[in-house]
Amino acid sequence: MAKLSIKGLIESALSFGRTLDSDYPPLQQFFVVMEHCLKHGLKVRKSFLSYNKTIWGPLELVEKLYPEAEEIAASVRDLPGLKTPLGRARAWLRLALMQKKMADYLRCLIIQRDLLSEFYEYHALMMEEEGAVIVGLLVGLNVIDANLCVKGEDLDSQVGVIDFSVYLKSDDDIGGKERDVQIAAILDQKNYVEELNRQLNSTVSSLHARVDSLEKSNTKLIEELAIAKNNIIKLQEENHQLRSENTLILMKTQHHLEATKVDVEAELQTYKHSRQGLDEMYSEARRQLREESQLRQDMENELVVQVSMKHEIELAMKLLEKDIHEKQDTLIGLRQQLDEVKAINMEMYQKLQVSEDAMKEKSEIISRLEDKTNQINAAMKQLEQSDKDLLTQTRTIAMSFVKCASNEAQHQYKLVKDISF
Prior knowledge:
Helix 11 packs across helix 12. The chain has a domain at about 1-170: Methane Monooxygenase Hydroxylase, Chain G, domain 1 (Up-down Bundle). The chain has 12 helices and 2 strands; from the N terminus they run ααββαααααααααα. By secondary structure, it is mostly helical. The chain starts with a helix and ends with a helix. The chain has helices spanning about 1-15, 25-40, 55-60, 60-65, 70-80, 85-100, 100-110, 115, 130-140, 170-175, 175-385, 390-420; strands spanning about 45, 50. The chain is flat, with a radius of gyration of 67 Å. The chain has a two-stranded antiparallel ribbon with strand order 1-2. InterPro entries: RUFY1-3, Run_dom, Run_dom_sf. This is RUN and FYVE domain-containing protein 2 isoform X3. Keywords: Coiled coil. It comes from Lepidothrix coronata.
């Protein structure tokens, strides 16, 4: 159907003989067939609300592969009446036909099979060899001049239906094979002439650019030649002036040399007379120089000795400072230890005072116990007189009580001593 549509469009356009517009039926059928060809094998893409299947995705990819297609893609996006991707794709096909570059755009697209695989299935028409055949047939559409109004046309809601009755063969079609052969020959010649015209235009433009560059370079060379001539004239004048100045300088130098020659002879005579006195002065100065050099050597030796002594003094001072710092550190440590010992002594003194107070209390208790024992002894003596048996019992009880009290007092006294120690 694509072959028949392209062939019918070319034949009808040549017989029509003028620029085609949007209402031309074969042109409308061509766009419908191309739309079906581009939809064949197109992958279904999931959108937010439903499934989407549009040809605008691969056509939008052309501007990345073919830089000249950026203008047509921008124009399609800027059209105000287009709301759907299918409407943008239809507008893109119409603009590409008007530019006579539809074949070039689709050729760049079918070459990139790896990019097309994102939009088409492996059995799609654009992925097979038939796609390249259709692109080759589209080259013949370059003979057609179309003037299509895309801005005011409703491309979003059009229904693409193929009219097969246009492509059915009839007796007139069978009898017109010779005319088809002639039209094909004319089309081939026209394509050849257009290609030759493109090449000639490119060569003419390159030659024009070359002529312009040569003219610019020629004018620059002429200007440089005039400047060089002026420079040569100036240099010749300066050369003549320098030669005249050179002769004058030569004459002046000759006179000056004669005068200086006489002066040099007179100075030579005076030099010979003063040479002898200068020799004597030189020997005297040499002797003084030796003495001063010896004196300087002695001073340098003494200076070395003084420097070494200074270094030794500085080293001794450093060692002394280090010793002083160490002694100060030890003194600080001893002071800290002394403070600690004083604190310990104060603490022991306080403990001693407490232990002495406890000793006094224990001694009072012991004296009281002794008074009680004396009273008990007196009572025992009185009781012995009354009843000997009771006396013996009370005596044993009192003695045991005294022993326990004395043992307890002694034990507390030892504890007090230990605490005070």
